[in-house]
Task: structure prediction
Amino acid sequence: MRTDPRHRITSPLSTVRNIGVLAHVDAGKTTVTERILYLTGTTHKRGEVHDGTTVTDFDPQERDRGITIFAAAVSCVWDGHRINLIDTPGHVDFTDEVTRSLRVLDGAVAVFDAVAGVEPQGEAVWRQADRQGVPRIAFVNKLDRAGADLDAAVASIRERLGVVPLVAQLPIGRESGFTGVVDLLRMRALVWADGRDGYEDRPVPGALREEAARRRALLEETVAELHPAALEEYCAAGGVSAGTLASALRDLTRGGGGVVVLCGSAYRDRGIEPLLEAVVAYLPSPLDVPAVRGTLDGEVRERAADPAAPFCGLVFKVQSTPTGRLTFLRAYAGTLRKGEVVLDPVSGRTERIARILRVRADRHAETDVAVAGDIVAVVGPKAARAGTTLCAPGAPLVLEPPGTAEPVVSVAVEARRAPDADRLATALGRLAEEDPSLVVRTDPETGQTVLSGLGELHLEVAVETLRRHGVEVAVGRPRVSYRETVARGVTGSVYRHVKQDGGAGQFAHVVLDVEPLDVAPGTAGAFEFRSVVVGGRVPQEFVRAVETGCRDALAEGPLAGHPVVGLRVTLTDGATHPKDSSELAFRTAGRLGLREALRTGVTALLEPVAEVTATVPDDAVGGVLGDLAARRGRVTGSTARAGTTTVTATVPLAELFGYASRLRGRTQGRGTFTTRPCGYAPVPAAVSARLLPG
Result:
């Protein structure tokens, strides 16, 4: 069934689905997106990743590298429902794109490889969706591959993601013989033939009837354990009807009680129609999710997804195109019309909406209006950034912006030719505007321009973007962001700040205890401040000033000027002067007092570490393990399967530069790997001695 893409949706919000496609790199999510666009009539030819002809991977770098780098929004129509879909990146270096996309989505399809099951970045994006509270359904892809195993993939979903999988299909055939699925709700076989669009609806094959009945019974039992209405019917009738089962699956999906699991092969056009039907049936519409919450003058307020309410939308992406600047936003409430003025309630700036566009990756269709629930691009705003709220001027509301990951890798960049310096500054500003996880700063010591990002590939893509815009740049070796922490604290560190240079003076006396702070891995940035001063020896407003001063001191540690993390500071005593004490004096005392205490105690250097998951041929395992050891890696596990071994290790990020080339060389191009940041770890003394000045 293919829908005419020209069909306009005028039905209510209940027929809108805002979804994302999430997956580990190479699990097939872009191919899934392409098949959705083809089957809905949005495109008239199947795009292929390996040919560089996909709609959503339209950037030249995406086509050259064969991976998704930038989140791409598309809109299509299926069975009278408008589906606004965002194809997200699967590589860990572009995880911030996933975070910003999830912030504006109501549901998602998580794609898993039927051979590999749940892979590291697939797990990472699943956890991101957990934090955002986004309901999901799972699609086990690539069932036509050698070694594909639906049951093994489902087991990995249960074990690694900690969810209850509700398997709604049974594959027909294995590996290259995979031809279709049995729909366990309707107990019908859906069979696809090569070279033909759509599936044939047939009775369940005789050889699969017993297995299909067993799996249907298992699905009924599992759902009955989780859903009261299904349990009531199961106890009364000894089973659950298809209608009750579908209703329960919808409730469990939207409430997070379980995850519907479907399967197929997107590359061979098998399983996409049932996936679309599941998106419509189980994932929520804008009316099914809680009203958006924002703040106004410190007060939390809600605004319902009502086209008649005052307009309120959140910007999640900004993109520069040859024809101008596009601002992508999710409309949460109200109606936005072309030519209207919107307000940024944080800056107080108003901007006019010149055009509203329905987006299909790099192609657009102009529309006059966007209503609550829509995901569109607008032309006109010049200052809006990802995370900016745009709303009706008469009804301001500030929505919570998506979080931004902290950069961990940096390179120095400079223009090769002096006349290009201004162009480089402009281009870097545009990059940081489009991708908030890229940070541009000037090194105060060297005067170099430093570009920081989430990984080596992230920076490679950014630098290549500069070059493709005609800016020739020279790039230094990547550097990681080290931290300093307290290895051994100090007790009773006294600092007395006295300044008298005519007029009112400054006086502040503080006594500080500094100690290491035990925190979970990956949260080394924690800092705690507390006061145990009694008797009013330091007034409360001065206590707050001391805390502010201590936070100021964390910017540069005593070892090498890196930020200080993982410590607790306790103000134990102090003294004031009746005339010369002030908040400024106590803030200064807090800053200088903590710096002195850190110099007195023992501090240590921390480095960012990453979990590396390398999949290599069995005959190359020894060389790969030796290389990881040489990079100060600590192997945490390995599993063997079908002639390959997957090795998991924790490796300092500084040692991973150039690892892709080394792994290809040691495995004759057959090895692959992924990385996932996992916090900070102490630098060994021998390495620390090389890194520290002097």
Summary: The first strand starts at residue 16 and ends at 23. The longest helix spans residues 209-226. Confidence is low (pLDDT under 50) at residues 1-11.
